[in-house]
Amino acid sequence: AHLDRIGEVDGAVHAFLHVDTEGALAAARKVDDDIAAGAHVGPLAGVPIALKDVLTTEGVPTTVGSKMLEGWLPPYDATVTRRLKEAGLVILGKTNMDEFAMGSSTENSAYGPTRNPWDLDRIPGGSGGGSAAALAAFEAPLSIGTDTGGSIRQPGAVTGTVGVKPTYGGVSRYGLVAFSSSLDQAGPCARTVLDAALLHEVIGGYDPMDSTSIDAPVPPVVAAAREGANGDLSGVRVGVVTQFSGDGYQPGVLRSFEAAVAQLKQLGAEVVEVSCPSFDYALPAYYLIAPSEASSNLARFDAMRYGIRVGDDSTRSAEEVMALTREAGFGPEVKRRIMIGTYALSSGYYDAYYGSAQKVRTLISRDFEAAFATVDVLVSPTTPTTAFPIGERTGDPMAMYQADLCTIPANLAGNAAMSVPSGLSDEDGLPVGLQIMAPALQDHRMYRVAAAYE
Ligand code: GLN
């Protein structure tokens, strides 16, 4: 049924870069056979899922939304992919994304934009717009995203779906094509909080193949989602971050947020205002740290090891082939990031740019620590605006970066954060998201609040 649905609507939505019809049907048949043979299967066995094209899938194309990896067939599965297969999930295919996960609208994909199912002339968020649009268009009931600065939560917010960035290190990055290694985190996308929690427990947990994987049990997110569903938040302290309002926020988004806070109070939560002054510097710090790491990570695309090769290597030097390949393989936003990152890391500028950004990162972590000493979770709008029209911000990178204003602090500090649908804006009738943030390894706290609110 989901493959049929993809056939019907994906021509217009373009959530998928690759649909693996045969692989999906074979995986589904295997679950049927296992059940017929009396085998024990997990709670998500047989459930279809779409995978952001940044996670490797053995023998199935993985492009990261880039021309650079066109035609590349990974020789191995990412740990997330492997865990999905072992749990019997049926992988439908790979979803569209901004090239190398750099963007906030999915317009930076080398394969054309994804459209928002709520309004096909608008963006579905980014960088994981394909994974969110696939849920909103009922092409898949579950999907996987990755969140470096908001790429799971922001698409979730603008498509009316649930998106979770787990605690950094809570889900393995093995086989996740690196953008900014100290920020990248894979996580579950779903249409309900409980669905996201079930998927979280399948993909989460320690992996010796990832040196930053946390060696601790997966937080009990399914139990928390079930507990929250009884709608009682008494005893829960919720902090409203005062920095996330003012200029750049649509009045409709702010009104939706006020209504959400009122509802949390009604459910029994105690709500207080919390100030996190360093959050004002999160965006500039992120746009130095993420490009710096990207400039280093993307050095591996050298025309020798992966992907395309441009230029005749019998007549040209290795340097020329490398330059021609990177010229043709990378799009404008990726080149911009490589240049910013290379500059910020260069001797003479390192302390002023990268060093300062790292100090801001520490201050942001301290703001979170101080806040979580008095509250259980923090809340804010997920995005300052609802989905904007396709093309509106493509010529203005600074305007595009503003879409990450509320989501970036959680990546810089490494703690958990999620977006849950918060109704439609009374301004334009488009979905709004409520962001809930929790301390590292306390992911279950935000699931409880989200399930009660949902
Ligand atoms: N929009 C942010 C960026 O362009 C975040 C991307 C992400 O989370 N992958 O870097």
TrEMBL record:
Pfam families reported for this sequence: Amidase (PF01425)
Active site: 52, 127, 151
Keyword entries, A-Z: ATP-binding, Ligase, Nucleotide-binding, Protein biosynthesis
Superkingdom per UniProt: Bacteria
Signal peptide (UniProt feature, chain positions): none
SUPFAM superfamilies: Amidase signature (AS) enzymes (SSF75304)
Enzyme Commission (EC) number: 6.3.5.7
Catalytic activity: L-glutamyl-tRNA(Gln) + L-glutamine + ATP + H2O = L-glutaminyl-tRNA(Gln) + L-glutamate + ADP + phosphate + H(+)
Family of this protein: Belongs to the amidase family. GatA subfamily.
Purpose: Allows the formation of correctly charged Gln-tRNA(Gln) through the transamidation of misacylated Glu-tRNA(Gln) in organisms which lack glutaminyl-tRNA synthetase. The reaction takes place in the presence of glutamine and ATP through an activated gamma-phospho-Glu-tRNA(Gln).
Full protein name: Glutamyl-tRNA(Gln) amidotransferase subunit A
Origin species: Saccharothrix hoggarensis
